[in-house]
Design a protein that fits this description.
With about 210 residues, the protein is α+β, with helices and mostly antiparallel strands. The protein has one domain (about 5-180): Roll (Pnp Oxidase, Chain A), CATH 2.30.110. Helices cover about 25% and strands about 35% of the residues.
Length: about 210
């Protein structure tokens, strides 16, 4: 993606944390020159100790076997997974200085890697269990896959589980870094006071980034 230096996020831990938080992502493949996309929840696992470059780790997910996308997986080319965070329109009227024009603040992470279909039934079940555990974690009485017994095993022929070993991760946090400090602060404070949850989330990202400066 187009990635000006001022908007780059290169901290591996922050990139992984962002991917975990916004883990309902878009898987993009290309077959015969035609792009194909699926929207899936992903498990995000860090790389092993000693890996470098901010591109370590892997993604785990599953899709319906009837979805043809997995048939386009190849060990010869990468696929793209897009993790999209909060975003908002920014009006020029929010700035302190003039002149200015409208823009859009947002945060995204693009993850690349070679996909591998997982055939082992026990590994597929582990991915399902871990997915349920992840998304049930905040509930007062979390539901577990064990409650359906052998039914989960019988569902396996209907899904395709896969892993994606990450080869490259790019983070773009476009949060007014290219604006004057007083303009950035004015936008951040306005967003933090907004009644719109998405706008407040962008304000939080701006505050976190400013606190790291």
């Amino acid at each position: 993606m187009y990635l000006p230096r001022s908007f780059q996020e290169q901290d591996p831990e922050r990139l992984l944390a962002f991917m975990r938080r916004y883990n309902f992502a878009t898987l993009v493949t290309v077959e015969d020159g035609v792009p194909f996309a699926s929207h899936l929840p992903f498990l995000v696992e860090p790389g092993t100790e000693g890996s470098s470059g901010g591109s370590s780790g892997r993604l785990l997910a599953h899709m319906a076997r009837a979805n043809p996308q997995w048939r386009a997986f190849s060990q010869d080319r990468d696929v793209l997974v897009i993790f999209e965070g909060p975003h908002t329109y920014v009006s020029p009227s929010w700035y302190v200085t003039e002149p200015n024009v409208p823009t859009w603040n947002y945060a995204v992470v693009h993850a690349y890697g070679r996909p591998r279909v997982i055939e082992e039934p026990e590994e597929c079940l582990r991915i399902l269990r871990d997915s349920v555990s992840t998304y049930e974690a905040g509930f007062e009485k979390p539901w577990t896959l064990d409650r359906v017994g052998d039914h989960a095993q019988r569902l396996l022929p209907g899904i395709t589980a896969f892993e994606l070993r990450l080869s490259r991760v790019e983070g773009k946090f476009k949060l007014n870094q290219n604006r004057a400090p007083e303009d950035r602060r004015a936008v951040m404070e306005l967003l933090e006071r907004s009644e719109d949850p998405a706008q407040r989330a962008v304000g939080v990202l701006m505050r976190e980034r400013d606190d790291r400066r």
